[in-house]
Specification:
This protein is of the alpha+beta class. It has 3 domains: 268 residues, no CATH class; 115 residues, Ubiquitin-like (UB roll) (Roll), CATH 3.10.20; 161 residues, no CATH class. Helices cover 20% and strands 40% of the residues. It is elongated, with a radius of gyration of 32 Å.
């Protein structure tokens, strides 16, 4: 009887222990309610101890964050630099299956109800455990909205080639496990796979994971949508919006902290741009791809809730209810088989805006492939409206061929260069109100070569008229002869002279070189003026050639100057540098064409 009693007592004690353990598991598996915006107690990294249990919050599907069990491994001292500690932890629950996925960046972690930081790093690849690095919340709270300093190594398309050149082969670094920032998946909606493939080297060199995705909600503008006051609670998905509308590019992460006005997220940089003005949106997660190699959230950006104001080493910071400046773009597409209009908005940044303009036009040209790829002509024409300045007029044609760059890419790069020249102006940043352009495509190569030219008479009176003809050889077509008439200036001296029959590129070359040499001294209005002076590549130009030099000063061409004047200008008697060309070219007439014209030649004539 005593033995039976002892056995029953042992069973009761065991049940009590199991009950306590079960209650502990329940307490860990069923943490407090979803965190809300507002003041929150914090626990600094110095208080963190190995073995502590906590809870992280992130969205696996839809818009509601779910709890993830967290076990603290310890504090990794100076992991990100002097006094930049990282908290190492192991994730459980769903995260143990998905691993530490792209898009989880910023997931808030709480211990004993106190916020300790944001999930921000992971073991490089192939880790069987969901080991993460947590950025301490005290580092993120240091981000403020008025810091105007620029980080030394931002991620921009222009810096991609430099990063590639400086990259050290991985085998030189050893094959040991490394903690790396969780990739922020850059989601593209409305883009062709060919577009992402064409620009993938740039994305890879910037450390960006480009994925196809979608967009939901009203994202056609940058104004916060109704209900922004209650948006972006801790654990919710947050997106930085680079392009919105019929085309979308967004970077997704998770909200770490929201005090009702200021929002912190990611736990690491987005592009490390420093101060910025980018639309900040809510997000909707479709699924989390489970993988030990490259787990990622698939998500859509939804309504705009405010504007990102800082992109720093330890996270991003945005302000609810504020509106970021964007550039409205309208692209009208006109082909024999397709007529549509795309409307979208582009993030304003001196390094990113030109690249985004290039990418969106290239993608739009990819949608015009209703003709054989080796037989097509593209034309781009439009206006760039600028605050306080005359509009920038743009027009360019490109044909498929055997050149080093495909025609759609050549056209897109030319388009992006217009904006690069605007934004790299040293005097002031451009204020672009709107961009409107039309893209056309013809299913043939519309290309003519200047094959020959002649004058009806090689002698003329000063003030008279010269007449002649230009022979053009069309691509796989007949020989076409165009007539021209050009008035001879009454001031032209008697004697031998020359005419230049040429394409627009020949005339643009010298001024473009002068603009490049003097680019650091040009005002914004001069940059616009120089681009508006460029000759189109679809015209034939007949010009007078003089053996006296032309000086390029600012956006002005000063032709036929005496050597004494040029010497005085180049001796430093002017405040701005000048560039001189050996000859002066004065356009007398042009012949319009609906084809690209290429080539040049000179004709001699005599004034009696």
């Amino acid at each position: 009887m005593d033995r039976l009693k002892q056995m029953m007592q042992k069973q009761a004690a065991a049940l009590a222990v199991l009950s306590v353990m079960a209650l502990a598991c329940v307490a860990w598996a069923q943490p407090a309610a979803k965190p809300a915006a507002g003041p929150v107690a914090i626990m600094k990294s110095a208080e963190i101890k190995p073995g502590m249990k906590g809870t992280a919050w992130t969205v696996f599907e839809g818009t509601e964050p779910e709890a993830i069990p967290v076990e603290i491994i310890g504090l990794w001292k100076n992991a990100w630099g002097p006094k930049q500690d990282v908290i190492l932890a192991k994730l459980g629950g769903k995260a143990a299956r998905t691993n530490v996925a792209g898009g989880m960046s910023g997931s808030p972690v709480y211990v004993d109800g106190k916020l300790i930081g944001a999930v921000a790093l992971r073991i490089s690849v192939f880790s069987p455990d969901a080991i993460c690095g947590i950025t301490p919340i005290e580092h993120m709270l240091e981000i403020n909205e008025i810091d105007s300093t620029t980080p030394p190594s931002p991620k921009t398309p222009q810096s991609a080639s430099a990063r590639a050149e400086l990259a050290v082969p991985e085998n030189l670094l050893g094959s040991g496990p490394r903690m790396v920032s969780i990739e922020t998946p850059l989601t593209f909606s409305g883009f062709h796979q060919q577009s992402l493939d064409a620009f993938s080297p740039v994305f890879r060199q910037m450390g960006i994971q480009a994925v196809m995705g979608g967009a939901a909600g009203n994202s056609t503008g940058s104004a916060p949508a109704p209900g922004w006051q209650k948006a972006l609670a801790p654990g919710d998905a947050i997106a930085g919006v680079l392009v919105s509308g019929d085309l979308n590019i967004t970077g997704l992460g998770t909200v770490t902290y929201n005090d009702g006005r200021r929002v912190l997220g990611f736990g690491h940089s987005f592009f490390n741009l420093g101060p910025l003005s980018m639309p900040m949106a809510k997000g909707e997660v479709l699924m989390v791809l489970s993988s030990q190699f490259q787990p990622n959230k698939f998500a859509n950006a939804t309504e705009i809730a405010g504007a990102l104001r800082q992109d720093r080493h330890s996270g991003i910071m945005g302000i609810l209810g504020e509106q970021a400046e964007t550039i409205p773009v309208t692209l009208e597409i006109d082909t024999p088989k397709l007529k549509e209009t795309l409307n979208f908005n582009i993030f304003v940044h001196p390094k990113w805006t030109p690249f985004l303009m290039t990418l969106t036009v290239f993608n739009s040209l990819q949608g015009l492939n209703d003709a054989a790829a080796d037989e097509a002509t593209y034309m781009l024409e439009g206006d760039v409206e600028l605050t306080g300045l005359s509009p920038l007029k743009v027009k360019q044609m490109a044909v498929t061929g055997d050149g080093p760059m495909p025609a759609p890419m050549a056209m897109a790069v030319w388009w992006g260069d217009r904006f690069n020249r605007l934004f790299q102006n040293p005097e002031s940043a451009p204020k672009i109100k709107r961009v409107t352009a039309k893209l056309k495509m013809a299913g043939e190569r519309k290309l003519s070569i200047i094959e020959g030219a002649w004058l009806d008479s090689s002698e003329v009176e000063a003030g008279g008229m010269l007449t002649g003809k230009v022979a053009l050889r069309r691509w796989r077509g007949e020989r076409v002869v165009r007539e021209f008439t050009i008035p001879v200036p009454a001031t032209l001296a008697a004697g031998d002279h020359r005419l230049l029959v040429s394409d627009g590129d020949t005339l643009n070359r010298t001024q473009a070189m002068a603009a490049m040499v003097n680019r650091n001294s040009l005002e914004l209005a001069q940059v616009v003026s120089i681009m508006n002076q460029e000759k189109g590549n679809d015209n034939i130009y007949v010009s007078f050639l003089q053996s006296r030099p032309t000086v390029y000063a600012g956006d002005k061409q000063l032709g036929g100057l005496p050597p004494s004047v040029i010497n005085a200008m180049q001796a430093g008697r002017t405040a701005r540098p000048v560039t001189a060309a050996a000859e002066t070219v004065n356009v007398g007439t042009l012949l319009k064409s609906d084809e690209i014209v290429s080539g040049n030649l000179a004709l001699r004539f005599k004034v009696k």
